[in-house]
DUF402 domain-containing protein
Amino acid sequence: MEKLLWRLTDKYAPAPPAYSVASRPTWFDHAGDLVVVNSPITWETPWLTEGGFSHQLPAGSHPVYVGSGAYAPLDEDPEVFWPSVTLVVIPLAEPSRIAAADWNVPGYHDVHLIEDYAVLWGDEAMRASLPHDVDGTPSFVRDARSDIRAGGPQDRQGYWKNVLAACE
């Protein structure tokens, strides 16, 4: 799996001097499993961007790998680092089958750039997050932001939060 993650990184966030709109992660971690009850699942920045990516995923439990790093923001104190997730991979097949796939087809180059935060969720989880704060964001986003910042850049397993939204 590690080899596949870095192969995907080389494709979507190549090392300099290659140009990339995505930041190259420093490391990968298994962030947990995405449990899909029904599809579609959407990766988006709700209420900040227009839409996101929706995917039809099979029901079941799927591992989620997160590529992340600590980066100094431009034009700010170079000693201050922000934790940042730069790449998310949810393999739906065996790594060897994914590696053997033809990546030079339309749609495989799409990148969903994130503004501030992103959420991976289904429609029921989105509805379960209501009502939202005055600024329009779900309260779990505010809480996750606080937890992530409190951990600091040395807490690399804390650059994301898994939130369980109970749905009826």
